[in-house]
Design brief:
about 45% helix, about 170 residues, single chain, alpha/beta
Amino acid sequence: YFSTLGTQEREDGQDFLWYLGSGPNSPLFGKDKMATFERYFRGALHESAIPEPGAYALLERLYGNTILCVASNGPLEQQLHRLALADMARYFSFCFISEDIGAAKPARAFFETAFSRLNAGRALPILPSETLMLGDRLSSDIAGGREYGMHTCYYKRGSGMPAAGEAEFVVFWG
């Protein structure tokens, strides 16, 4: 939308905004326009890495004192690329990405595979009850972690409390 006047990128952005405003009744409704937007969106997402305020300080404090892992739904290469762009990959011992695992959070199979990889070669396995799932999605991060027996901490943007019992801990921002 903010691209240079007359470019295809600007036209695609305007088409999508028109579509959002008009929905299925839009004359632009159709797979070709949505496919164009999907490609643009995925490309932009691939190149975006905007850390939350305080993220580096938290990682620095935890790094070396605990095993830090990423648990993310999404394309493997994209998620690893975004961690590298943000200069955060160095903090994590393991990256559990749904595309690589073959299941997405909150599926039990995601967590089973993640813990299997985490515990490979360990004499004493790390138990779910000894871990914390920190996430910003109640439906995937918190529900999946809770159901697998992990402690949970919900990272909540904005105001309003989540329902009681959804997460053990809640961190608010903004």
